[in-house]
């Protein structure tokens, strides 16, 4: 069974930085494309960033491009999301997700991802 666990969510001031981490166990991490999504109360789950198997290709939503950076360490089975210049609009529960056999183009729709973490809460105050 594949387990995905996020950590690092916190309460931050606007303009600050925060790093989220995601640990994956029970599967072949190096065969998964990985993504970060977020969901605010009463809103749909929103794509944030994705990264391919080797980490050579990344994709970002327009709302976070230039501020957030996704990375992975295949030796440690981990993914990170480094967030800078945080805005109140970034407030959400952030989810880490794995796409099984993720050899193709990076995906932005949540239905393409097979394994999900429980989420970690990020609150950005103004």
Primary descriptors:
7-stranded mixed beta sheet; 4-stranded antiparallel beta sheet; mainly beta; 0% helix; 126 residues; 11 strands
Strand content: over 45%
- Give the overall pLDDT as a whole number: 97
Instruction: Report the uncertain regions.
Output: none
Q: Sheet bearing the most strands, described? A: 7 strands, mixed
Count of helix runs: 0
Find the count of extended strands (DSSP E, 2+ residues): 11
- Overall geometry: globular
Radius of gyration, in Å, reads 13 Å
User: Helix/strand-derived class?
Assistant: mainly beta
Fraction of helical residues = under 10%
Layout: helices, strands, pairs:
Layout: E1 3-7, E2 11-13, E3 18-25, E4 33-39, E5 46-51, E6 58-60, E7 68-73, E8 78-83, E9 92-99, E10 115-116, E11 120-125
Parallel strand pairs: 2-11
Antiparallel strand pairs: 1-3, 3-8, 4-5, 4-9, 5-6, 7-8, 9-10, 9-11
Q: What would you say about this model in short?
A:
By secondary structure, this protein is an all-beta fold. It is built from no helices and eleven strands.
């Amino acid at each position: 069974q594949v387990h995905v666990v996020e950590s690092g969510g916190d309460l931050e001031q606007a303009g600050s930085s925060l790093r989220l981490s995601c640990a994956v166990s029970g599967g072949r991490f190096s065969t998964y494309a990985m993504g970060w999504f977020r969901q605010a109360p009463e809103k749909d789950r929103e794509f944030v960033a994705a990264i391919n198997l080797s980490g050579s290709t990344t994709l970002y939503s327009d709302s976070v491009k230039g501020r957030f950076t996704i990375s992975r360490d295949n030796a440690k089975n981990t993914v990170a999301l480094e967030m800078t210049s945080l805005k109140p609009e970034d407030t959400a529960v952030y989810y880490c997700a794995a796409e099984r056999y993720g050899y193709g183009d990076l995906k932005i729709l949540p239905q393409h991802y097979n394994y999900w973490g429980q989420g970690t809460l990020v609150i950005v105050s103004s």
